[in-house]
Structure formats: structure tokens, C-alpha cells
Amino acid sequence: MKKNNTPTNENAKLDDLEKNREYSDGQFITTDHGVKINNDHNSLKAGERGPSLLEDFIMREKITHFDHERIPERIVHARGSGAHGYFEAFGNVSEYTKAGFLNDTTTKTPVFVRFSTVAGFRGSTDLARDVRGFAIKFYTQEGIFDMVGNNIPVFFIQDAMKFPDLIHAVKPEPHNEIPQAASAHDTFWDFISLMPESMHMVMWAMSDRAIPRSYRMMEGFGIHTFRFINAEGKSTFVKFHLKPKLGTHAVVWDEALKISGNDPDFHRRDLYDNIEMGNFPEWEFGVQLVPEEDEHKFNFDLLDPTKIIPEELVPVTKIGRLVLNRNPDNFFAETEQVAFHPGHVVPGIDFTNDPLLQGRLFSYTDTQLSRLGSPNFHEIPINRTIAPMHNNQRDGHMRQEINVGRTSYSPNSLNNGYPVQAKEAEGGFVSHYERVEAHKVRERSESFADHFSQAALFFNSQTEPEQNHIIKALRFELSKVETVAIRERMLGLLNQVDKKLAQQVAAGLGLAVPAQPEKPINHGVGADADPNKHEPKRVDKTYQPSRALSMVNNPTTTKSIETRQVAFVCGEGVNEKSVNALKKALEAKGATAKIVGPHAGNIEGDAGTEIKIDFAFFSSSSVLFDAVYVPSSQNNAALADNDNVIEFINDAYRHCKVIGFDADLDTLIKKTTIGNKLTGGKDMALPGIIINKEISKTFADDFTTQMGKHRIWEREPKISE
Ligand code: HDD
């Protein structure tokens, strides 16, 4: 029996998954082996009050399966959420790549995307300060292409050799397993303070990019430089970008902390609910292209994953769009078992010698062997390619495929040589014909030694509130570090990025910036090599600030309020005209009104209509919404007396959200922070505080327009205050 939402579209991967879907509607309960069960509530016993019998194969099977339900969580990126969708090419890159799915504008390529945090365990909060994983599995006609990226375009380290160290440092400390899903502890900052190469990434990770508003409002990046290969075998360097249609948005840190308590599944719920509501998340897929001849044209190395190519130097060309339009049917089967690998490429895409990428090419298959337990993980439905798959790999735990015939080797004559190799013209993958001539060394290239210039570029490209948030984040994180020497070492590194930044962080820590930054240690040198080799370079001041690096100033950010949620704080006998007028205006712009009331269930409006309450004051908080509106009600006094309501409004004010009030709520307003600020009476303008003097279109227009600013930053106190 098919479920109602079984796809009827032409998504070949969803059709492929149908073979494995199980629907129990109208069916008998059976054992794993198909025997109908007569009593699933009681074990087999010798007498009603007697001992259980070993013979009970039904209970043994059920309990045994249960005992083995868990698999090891991912060593990193354990916490995540996924969705199905498709990719549609614009068809404008055939000059650079022969990859079919990037050129064929007639076929939608099915995708499965998994978003994740990095450090936390599987059950940790979505709102941790962390990098977000953005992994896309493209089920192309030519096999699987995985883009295993993040929402930040650079990485902490330059060589995969350091990955286990980085992860050991950031994960909870080994003696007491504290803290969960947080980098604010000694081991992380100890490592970072000794790794100047991480400074660019640290700027991003301390910015609000690390606390997104929604997975739907994040950029995605492939990070490494890859290669496009065209039909003539010509290579072009490429960096992958995803730009969200709704713009790139974040919450603020105090909000993140409170969301973690109010709804630790905030991002997971947001993704799931919006897809269910038909608000399909969408990104433009873009590339930065660099001709091979320009490889050494930049003042950084294209192979260095701690560097971006500023968009002002090489613009992003849009080459397609990615849409997510279906939730998984089963979290474990799909989101948990999906296995990504940066080494899954198709003809037309190839690797570079980025030493971080090269190490990843080993790690991802290896990890699936312990996580999913068998080399046959590619047969798990979510991982299965929709392209034809034939080879001489055989057997192993849980093999699904029944390979017919006598031969499992090549060359063979008994099966006429099949399966046969594909020539390049027949779609066979041929590695890029790159000439490599070098000594075998354990070293790092001097071209990787500039650790501060792009960190400074990032910091100096931010607006003032964004810079303040970076400073506050560093204060928060380093204040949790107990070892003073680590704090000081970090100040030394920050001082090399930007003096104001270091001073402001130091002030928060009650420390002075060390006069002489401790000399950063060097890497990539053997025990007997010169430790001063490739000393980190000082900031290159020739970089121009880049708007693309700021979320507030970002050229792609729109004033759209689509899919945003507004809390309507309603008392008994709420003014229905007020509620309906703003609700209508919001819905016209794609936003939603949520009724927050004094209890669960319904309230009665002033005209007698039963209004369904979505959240109660005692079980929600304004951190879960993008803006707040308080319509007048017959019992305004009860609203003003409710501590939860006052806190709701105060938080919204603190978090720079738009707040609207009907005109007769003076008593309530006076009890909030806003009351204290409105010294000249309620008519005195406060940014983003809108008083609805009469139910008018002007109020609704003003409210929705102000919401389009996303945050009222001028309200935020300056860092020095
Ligand atoms: Fe990784 C998972 C992204 C460096 C080793 N990584 C993983 C996931 C993402 C990334 C998004 C989760 C995929 C999913 O949702 O299942 N990793 C990155 C990025 C990196 C990076 C953007 C640097 C640019 N990773 C990296 C290195 C190594 C690994 C250098 C090892 C040398 N990553 C892994 C892993 C994981 C993983 C241990 C854990 C689970 C998995 O692979 O499937 O193999």
C-alpha cells in the first residue's frame, strides 16, 4: 500500500527508494521471518505468574533486535538533519566541465542533503556555536557526486594529518566529558592558540555564521579548490558555492543560549516543518572558476583550505539551483545511514593536491566501515546509485546483491570479459593528466604561511554589530578557558589579526594584550628541521573589504520576510480586528502568525471567535520567533501582570527584533525594558518599536517593512558600553 505522499514526480532516486519502503497500514504484525504474531503484549510463560520460557522465539527475536538497534554515531557531524530534493542545471558550464548533471537542463538530478553540527553528540542542541555541515549527495546519471561542505568557506587546519588533533581538542574533554557541543574550553583553545593557521577560520567560527537562524538560511561551500575537466580534458580550478534564496541569517548569542533550552531541535524542526508546509528551501549553486594558467596569480595558495578567493577577485557564476522538497520517511534509514565522501566524483570533476582534501579522500570510506559496519554500505538504499552498477567486488557482511554468473574477476573469458572497462568517450572516469615531479617530503609549502591576512580581511569586512559579536564571542569562549597562558597566547594571535579586536577581547578578560606575541610554533617540519622555517607572515594590507563576507552587508541579502514567524501575544478577549489585519499582511508576504496565549487550547476573541493557541506563555519564548506583536485584549491588565509576557517582550527587545503594540497597552509597555527607554511617552520613536494607533494598513506596512531589516541593529548597545 502506498502512502499519500509517495512521489509521483520524476525523481528517480525517490522511485528507487520505493523498493525498500515498508507500509504497515492494514497489515498483520509478524516476526522478522513473516510469521503472524498472535500476542505481542506478553512473553511466553509457564503459568500466568510463572517464569518466562527460552522457547519464546518471538520475544527473543524482538529483544535481540532491540539490543542491536544503535550504531556508532559519526565521529564528527553526529548531530544532523536531512532532506530530499533536486538540482537543476542552468546549462552554462560545458566549456569547463563535461559533468552531465551540470550541463543537462532537461533532467532534474535527485539529491539528498544532510546538515549538521560538528562537535556535539547525536542528541546535542542545534544551536551550539559551531560550523554547520552542508553535505549534498547528487544521484547523477553518471554515478554519485558528493559535495561534502560546510557553511563556512575555510577550515581550521591545512593538512589532514592534524584532523584527529583538532577533533580531540574540540570534543568534550576526555577526563570528565565536559562540555557538550561547545568549543568554549581549555583543550580547544590550547590547540588553536598553537595553530596560527586556524586564525581565519576562528574569525568565521566566532561570527554569527556559527549560530544560523535556520539551515534554510545558510550559505554552503565546497571549501577546497577542485577541478572541472571539460570534454577536451582541459582543467579549470573551481570552488563551489551555495547561496540561499532567503538570504544568510543568524540568531544572536543570547538567543542561541535560550533556544538551546526552549527547543534544542530548533533547526531540525524548522527544516522539517517548512518542507511539510511547502516552503521548500532553495539555493543557487555557483562556482568560482580560475584558469590553470592563473594558479599562481594570487597572494595565497589555491591549494590552501584556510583561504577564500574573494568574490571581488573572482565572481561567483550561478550554474544551477538546489531545492529540497521532501522529508525523509525514516530518520535512521535515510539521515543516519547516508554516507558521504568527498572522493565520490563523476567524470568532469576532479581533485587538486590540497593536503586537507587528499587526506579526506582516505578517511570517509574508512569511517563508514566502522559506522555502518560493512564494505556493502553503498547498497543501503539511501546510498545506492541510480546509475547502472557492475563490478567484481563481492560478498561481505549483509550483501544484498545476488551477483549472477561464475566470474568475479577481470580479465575473464568465461563471461566474454564483462563487465568491461569504459573508454573515456564512453564515460569512463580518467584522472586528470597532471604532471607531478617532486621529492618525497613531510613539509608544508611556504605559500601556506600567511595565516593572518584573510583573518583581518574577514574581520574588517564586517559591520560594527558583526565585529562586536566576534569580540563578544571570543570573550565568552576565552572566559571559559581556565588556563591564563592560553588566553594570553590567543590575545597574541588576535593582535596579529587586528589590534582593536585584541584590545577589546583583552578588556573582557581583564588582561592586557601581551606586548610581544609569543612566537607561533611552526608546522610541517621534522624533528631535525629548522623550526623557524616559514615563519607566519604579517597581515597583507592590500586586501579590500569584501561585502560578501558580511551577512548584514551581503549583496545577496534581501528584505524578504518569507517563512518568518511572528508571535502574536494574545490575552483573553483579544481584539480580532487587530489580529486579523496583521495576520493578513504577514501572510501576503509569506510570513506566518503564531498565537501565543495564556494557556494551551483556545481563547475567545472580542467578537466571540474561538482562536486556536499555538504556544502558551509558559511553554514558549520570543527566541523562537522573528518578531512580536501584542494586540490589545479585553484583559490587558492580565498580560501586564504576567512575568512570562514581560520576559517575552524584553528578550525580543534585547535581540533587536521588531515589536508592535496596539495603542492601549501603556501599563504593559511601562513594565518592560521598552517602558524605561520611552522617556518622552509612547509616541517617541524607538527603532523597530511600532505602536498601532488605529488598525490601519500603515501599521501593517510599517511592521512588515521593519521586519525586512531582519534585526534593528541600532538598538544594540555598543561594545564599549
Ligand atoms: Fe569531514 C564527516 C565536512 C575535513 C573526516 N565532514 C563530515 C561531514 C561533513 C564534513 C559535512 C558530515 C557528512 C554527513 O552529513 O554525513 N570535513 C568536512 C569539511 C572538511 C572536513 C568541509 C574540510 C574542508 N573531515 C575532514 C578531514 C577529515 C574528515 C580533514 C579526516 C582526515 N568527516 C570526516 C569523517 C566523517 C566526516 C570522520 C565523520 C562521518 C563521516 O565522515 O561520514 O570521515
Radius of gyration: 28 Å
What's the name of the CATH homologous superfamily of the largest domain? Answer: Catalase core domain
Shape: globular
Proportion of residues in β-strands: 5-15%
Largest sheet: 10 strands, antiparallel
CATH architectural arrangement of the largest domain: Beta Barrel
- Give the tally of β-strands: 18
Gap between N and C termini, in Å? 64 Å
- Derived from helix and strand composition plus strand pairing, the structural class reads alpha/beta
Helical run tally: 20
The level 1 CATH classification of the largest domain is Mainly Beta
InterPro entries: Catalase, Catalase_AS, Catalase_clade2, Catalase_clade2_helical, Catalase_core, Catalase_haem_BS, Catalase_immune_responsive, Catalase_large_C
Binding site for heme: 74, 114, 163, 360, 364, 371
Keywords: Heme, Hydrogen peroxide, Iron, Metal-binding, Oxidoreductase, Peroxidase
Function: Decomposes hydrogen peroxide into water and oxygen; serves to protect cells from the toxic effects of hydrogen peroxide.
